[in-house]
Amino acid sequence: MRRPIAIFDGIIADVRFAVRALRHAPGFALTAIGMLALGIGANATVFTLSRAVLFSGFPSVADNDRIAYVASSRSSCCLSYPDFLDWRERTTSLEGMAVVRGITVSLSDTAALPEGRDATEVSADTFRLIGRTPAVGRDFTAADELPGAAPVAILSYGFWERRYGKDPAILGRVVRVNAIPTTVIGVMPEDFSFPQKTDVWLPLVPTEQLLRRDNRNLWFAFGRVAPGATFESVQAELDAIGSALAADYPATNREYMPRARTFNEFFVGPNENMIYATLWGAVLFVLLITCFNLANLMLARAITKSREISLRMALGAGSWRVVGQLVIESLLLSSIGGFFGWWLTQRMVQAYALADRGPGRTPWRVLDYAVDDRALLYLIAISVVAGILFGLVPARRLAKLDINTSLKEGERGASRSAGRMSAVLVTSQVALAAVLVAGAGLMVRSYLTVTTAESGVRAAGVLTGYVELPPARYGTREALELFDRMRSRLQDSPAVESVSMASAPPTWGARQSPFELDGQPPAEQSSRPTTSSLVVSPDYFRTLDAPVLSGREFEDTDGTSTVQVALVNQLFARRHWPEEQAVGKRLRLFDERAPDAWLTVVGVVGNIVQTDMARQQQEPIVYVSSRQALPSGMWVFLRSRGPPGNLADVFRREVQALDADLPVLLGPYTLEQRMAEAYWNNELYAVSFMGVAAIALLLAAIGLYAIVAFSVSTRTKEIGIRMAVGAGTRHVLKLVFAQGMVPLAAGLTIGLVMSLAMTRLLQSMLVGVSPTDPGMLGLAALVLIVAAALGCWVPARRALRVSPVVALRQE
């Protein structure tokens, strides 16, 4: 028993010795702990985020790895209700199936003003399949989704708390959902949300329109994989069912085969997988830079004590005893750094979660960014590995000291033998930092390319919000009258310059409508070309400051009893009538929203980016007058004479004055804000990569500073002699800067070559930027050179202040 006790006592003694040593070097200790906290914290943060996005699945779903998400092979969503019924009836590899669809509803009652809320329509088995039940009240039943059943709803816990103050009498309360009296039957648990941020769940009741097989208006179906079944067997069964449906319904199902996906395959996709894998690799690079840096610092610190270490070894201390003490010291540093890294991880994850769920953001999926026990174990593991890594390198080097030389020459002899290793460590830091700075530069430039691209409109000064009229209360004539009165009332406000409406805002998509041109042979239904189409009101292009190039804009006199008209954008006109005037031409849209007649083109307008969220691609668009084909919901645009945010209350008040049960479902927010949401992820990833690159750059600069400062301190006599025999300022600066610029040049060369290979991983995420862009690689090199120059400047100034007399006297 004595030997284990002796070993334990020896470790305790080494820990005490390390604590005393660090207390006598507070600057070194604080620098090392700060670098470790950054490197370890960044790694634990990305681990937490990556696990939440890539692996964990929905926090509200039990056994995520057993849930199969099913949609058509043609797209990740958009399935038809009859297809879902056939899949559910015929499959045996899944323990039941459910289907979901996200909608926005108007909710009103006597508790507060009407609100537009996010809602999810679900089939009755949804909560059972994901293993959750309401915290208050009951679940949906099959009877709730039958046509003609009494309307019921289940509320989220947050909405129940926010609007009703957690009133226990909520069960049985009647609220109006889209002006339809609906009974509240339950409240879900506080931590529950599926599959998006939702306030209300409603049973999915099949309407006549929903039962059409060509109506692909549902999000996705899902089911729990049955015991003994696998995703492969589920897919094989769905393939057989899909083939049978394609044979039975070739017109609607031939190109829509069912496909089962895991959470990662359905909700994440290859681009996001690559983003997080690259980000994880980046923070591992940061941790390596941290280890190289600390190895250099510990090597330099140990060299200053080389005479002491050699004396101890000469008196009988074994080399492994010396190694053990240095490793204990490094593990102590990494433990303290890991502690502060844990605190930093919690703050960074919290900031990321707040940004991802910030105001105006309705995430497609609700994820759990919890810094839990697994994150803590990961942090402990990388702290221990980092401590061993940066402690062993200098320890092993010092264990090979020539005792006689070290006792004679002190730190000068030891520093000469360790200089090569120090230069290699700095070169490695610079190489890794170059890769990170180049990658971050590409991500930032990609983001700037998106944000500065022309959209075809002047979004500044415009407020927008979405208003939808309940079809049960508003027919076509009533809807047209209400929207006319809304435009008129808003236009009368002195703060409003102009008002218009459209079925979708710029960059947020458009309906794809089959069409044919007058004078061309009619095509079969399945082979008709398609084009983007949008319903807009008069003054739409004036409100958004988009040019009308020829002809006119829509007018209030355009109506159902007049000639049916259309506008086309410049790209559509050039593509279909390249040598002719588009004004006066006729076309027909095969779309339920468009008039069932030939449309006469009365104007050509500028190209507005409508469907490409990255603003890099314009497309042909046909615009239909809202006075001739009005949908039930419209986006309202108000150009303000002042800050557009000031119009939000005016907008809400005027809508409420027209219909007390009618809220602004989405918004109001500025058009700039709405369009910015389209590239929100680009901004988040660019900022993340910038943060990682900034940390790497700082650490590389510190590493260069450390090696140059140490070199100056060990060459004091040499510098003094050079200055005594006439060396000038330029010569001394050249001598000092060479210490930093040689490893910098080597590191930059290696790093830029690595960047050419590594940045190709980002290719699928870059917009308008080549992964081998020479400008960005040159900028990365320039940034590192400037950082290195700053790191060398302080030691250089110190070298210039060396007094030859003092330097020689010290020796």
Task: Provide an overview of this structure.
- This protein is of the alpha+beta class and 811 residues long.
- It has three domains: 1-60 and 274-409, no CATH class; 74-256, no CATH class; 470-661, no CATH class.
- Strands 2-3-8-5-7-6 form a six-stranded mixed β-barrel. A six-stranded mixed barrel has the order 13-14-19-16-18-17. The chain has a four-stranded antiparallel β-sheet with strand order 12-20-11-21.
- A hairpin with a 2-residue loop joins strand 6 (174-177) and strand 7.
- Helix 13 (411-452) packs antiparallel against helix 22 (774-800).
- The protein is globular and about 105 Å long.
- The two termini are 51 Å apart.
- The model has no long low-confidence stretch (mean pLDDT 82).
Beta-strand proportion: 15-25%
Radius of gyration: 34 Å
What is the 3D shape? Answer: globular
Task: Describe the sheet with the most strands.
Answer: 6 strands, mixed, barrel
Class from secondary-structure proportions:
alpha+beta
Mean pLDDT: 82
Secondary structure tally: strands: 21
- How many helices in DSSP terms? 23
User: What number of structural domains do the residues give?
Assistant: 3
Distance between the termini: 51 Å
**What spatial order of strands do you see in the largest sheet?**
2-3-8-5-7-6
